[in-house]
Specification:
Elements: E1 4-9, E2 16-23, E3 47-50, E4 64-67, E5 73-76, E6 81-84
Antiparallel strand pairs: 1-2, 1-4, 2-3, 5-6
Length: about 90
Amino acid sequence: MGDKLTVQVDGLTQGLVGTVRWVATEPAFTPYYALNQAERANLMYLAEVVLPDSAADLPSGIPIQVLLPKLNVSINSSERTIKSNAND
C-alpha cells in the first residue's frame, strides 16, 4: 500500500500518478485453467488507486489503464528468501 503508479486515462495525453490504497487478498475470479501453479500469475485482484485532486472532474466509468512496474523476483529456496526490485 502507498506505492505510486502511473494511470493512463483515455482522452488525456499525460498520465496521472495514483497511490495504491488497497489490494484484495483473494482473486476476483479463478478460471479453471488458473488452478495449476504455472497459470496462477494470471489471476486478477481488485485494487483501489487514489487519484490526485486534479482528476476530480473525470467522468465516472471512463476507461483507464494502470501501469504496473515490472518486477524481477529471485527466490532462494535453501534460505527461504525472496528478493525483488520493487524499491528500485
